[in-house]
Amino acid sequence: MLNRTEGGRRVALPAPPCLALLLLLSASLFPAAAWATEKSEATKPFRVCADPNNLPFSNQQQEGFENKIAEVLARGLGQAVAYTWWPQRRGFLRSTLNAGKCDVVMGLPADIDMVLTTQPYYRSIYAFVYPADAPYDLSSFDDPILKELKVGVHLIGDDYTNSPPAHALSKRGIVDNVVGYSVFGNYADPSPPGKIIEAVANNEIDAAIVWGPIGGYFAQRQAVSLRVVPVVSEDESSSLLLAYDIALGVRKSDEALKDTLNGLLTQHTEEIQQILVDYGVPGMALQPAGSHDPQQDTAVSDTQPLQASNGQPTEARDKAEQEVTNGLVKLNPYTGNPAAISEGEELYKLLNCYSCHGLRGGGGMGPDLTDEEWKEGTGDDTRVMDQVMTGRNKMPGYDGVITEEEAWKVIAYVRTLYKGNPSTIEW
Question: Could you give the CA distance from residue 374 to residue 129 in angstroms, rounded to a whole number?
Fold first, then answer.
């Protein structure tokens, strides 16, 4: 549980045990100039408070992904970014945003109550990081191999508050082989949060469990190949979350600025998502407004009629649009189309499909898309389209997020990842 001090007494923060601090330590629909005009001249700077040494989020050289996203938002306002640099320690918000030194803080948990937050612009999760050639595959805290490995976790704060992975391992009796790394580290060194990933690359520890953006970014920068696999856990509660929606923070009185930023986040969604992909951030589908439960499961019964993207049962689709080949329904007009497949690959990345299914479809938190076995039903085009648009179990539906044409292009790309026997193809 995070605490802050007010008037000599400790007050519990409602944000998750580590993430509020970790991301404070880390981490169009509206006229773009509305807030700037209301505040005065539209050329005023876009004032951001950030940590000067906290990659992959931010640094004084403006190399972090939050720096890049701030630039996108500032351009939308016709402004330049002006930073107040402040180490993100306890009291950061009180000393910066709420002291009037800036107007925006990037990368806060969407449900933190110390500030007014915008709509989320990404959602990520804790992840395992371990050598790609390791003789084990990690994805769950319940894997018995964790009791035999030297596992690194981040500790947060001067009092070494435990992170959610540390709590989850302790709950399972995995304690003696766990190595703690301070998320602050030696602040005189560049990028202190990345030291734990360097320890994996140098074989000082066998695996690390870290906040996804840290794992994804630093794993890409090691001399050896590392895997970054989102954690799968079935027993998490509101007191021990592993996935979080991330938003911008403004002062509670700045409703107009919040509305303007929401418009910009919507307008520049694709550009922002591409930045996150470039930095290796393991992404997840954002939760509906007002819901931040990463374990929410929208299971569908195998006997329930699947719905097409227009809300009608699949069986009611216009038969004239269907091409029957060898007794199988074939709907996808883009299968084998190189230009459409290339677009589908970009959409696969922008929609963060890779965070569950792997960058090349090899699986992880989600099933393997390259083999002959389909976890849910058959792999024919009709079935796959329904799963993409309406979702199934923990996979979100993308109806209203992408068009049906775009969905077909994603499916056409996924077809190119297949490594099985061509004689078993069902599309």
Answer: 26
Other beta carbons less than 10 A from residue 309's beta carbon: 19
| Pairing outcome for strands 58-59 and 3-6 | unpaired
Residue 97 DSSP symbol? G
Which pair of tokens denotes residue 260?
């303007």
**Nearest 5 degrees, angle CA 198-CA 199-CA 205?**
150
Pairing, β 9-12 against β 3-6: antiparallel
Question: Topology of 123-230 in CATH?
Answer: D-Maltodextrin-Binding Protein; domain 2 (3.40.190)
Q: Tokens standing for 82?
A: 């002006």
Nearest 5°: phi and psi at 85? Answer: -90, 130
pTM: 0.61
Among residues 246, 200, 243, 273, the alpha carbon closest in space to that of 365 is found at 243
200-232 burial code (b ≥16 CB/10 A, e <16): bbeeebbbbbbbbbbbbbbbeebeeebbbbbbb
Instruction: Locate 145 and state its tokens.
Output: 């191999």
CATH ID of 314-424, from 3.40.980.10, 3.40.190.170, 3.40.50.2000, 1.10.760.10? 1.10.760.10
DSSP letter at 145? G
| Most confident residue range from 1-10, 23-32, 148-157, 269-278 | 269-278
pLDDT(328) > 50: no
* Cα angle value 20/26/27 (rounded, 5°): 65
Lowest mean pLDDT among 22-36, 53-67, 161-175: 22-36
Judge: domain 14-121+246-278, CATH 3.40.720.10.
no
- Considering only the C-alpha atoms of the chain, give the largest distance between any 2 of them, rounded to a whole number of Å: 76
Q: What does the DSSP 8-state code read for residue 366? A: S
